[in-house]
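Dear colleague,

Thank you for sharing your sequence with our group. We've completed the structure prediction you requested, and as agreed, I am returning the results in plain text so they can be pasted directly into your records. Please verify that the sequence below matches your submission; if there's any discrepancy, let me know and we will rerun it promptly.
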Amino acid sequence: MAGLSPFPEDVFVQEQPWLANYFLPLISIDLGLLQEELRGTVVHMLNPFEPHDGLIGEGTEEFHTEFCGENWLAFELTADNRYRFLASEDYFVSSPTHGDEDEDMVEVIEKMKATYQRSRERFQATGQLLPWQEDNPQAFLDGFGGEIWYGNWSETAPVPPAFKLTIDPADGLPNDGISLSYQGREFLYVGEVAGYNYCGSGADAILLFFDPKTESCYLPMIGRKYYSTVIGFVGENNSVRTRIFGVHLRATI
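Please find the predicted structure tokens below.
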């Protein structure tokens, strides 16, 4: 899959090795697939382990930043296409600084890791994404390019102060009347995927946005028990929304 790399490795900066304790890398995306001038800029879909219940960032408000809040995560993309988290490790409720481990959370994490490893092994053997039955392939991406869309991610929790989210619903607007921006620049909507497509559990939708000027990623989350996260970047995009199975791109209706 040119430009798409499922189950990537080494996606975090060396000075934040602890990020591997909180995220599973799902797929890397070369933004040249959306805009030719961004070719070589590679971003990564991540599935967070937290929360066991509720929203990521819930209960750690004193460690939120202007970029990261409840249900919203942000990363800086380095020159070598690695993520630097724009908050401290204490943002995560399972950080060692917050006390004893939650046994239920530990069980959830171990199950998620085991399913992720099985999915990776099956992908290497078959080229398909098979977290459950071997005759039930899942999409590598549920959405790719196109317009942003309305969902509970846009109103579940306030957007962090660095960003501006405007919701002005009107019939016939391709973006559902939603605008997400940073310093007056619209984010480029990269795509979305359910965390359970890879891990058997996780967010119902992980949305990814990008800002080419600052090379920042933004992640809000949507879901049932788990809520989706969005990573953001800015730019213009006229690509159709697609679901990606293996090497095939198929536009959805």
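Summary note from our side: The mean pLDDT is 81.

Kind regards,
the structure core
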